[in-house]
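Lecture notes, unit on protein representations.

Consider one protein chain, 121 amino acids long.
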Amino acid sequence: QVQLVESGGGLVQPGGSLRLSCTASGSIYSIETMGWHRQAPGKQRELVAYIRNGEPPSYAESVKGRFAVSRDITKNTVYLQMNSLEPEDTAVYYCHLYYFSAAYSVMRDYWGQGTQVTVSS
């Protein structure tokens, strides 16, 4: 059993900032990748940013230069610092991870419950 606890969403004015966090716990042996996706009303879920072990962070083109993803391995936590927010960033943001539940197990993935981010004046 894996749990993902997300926090940090809310309402912010255009140009403002928010910081999302997501902490993983439970039957986790190791984490390969942690990241964020988002889904706006009437649109498909899309990748926002992620960090894979041993690689630099990756970002969607639409958020490059505005968002920064980081990870605290000791806390199994991933963060998403969102700056210069635009109304188009309004969406439910989902934490996502790829992990191993035990040594030599297959890699699995898990989604958080989502946190709402609304950018509006």
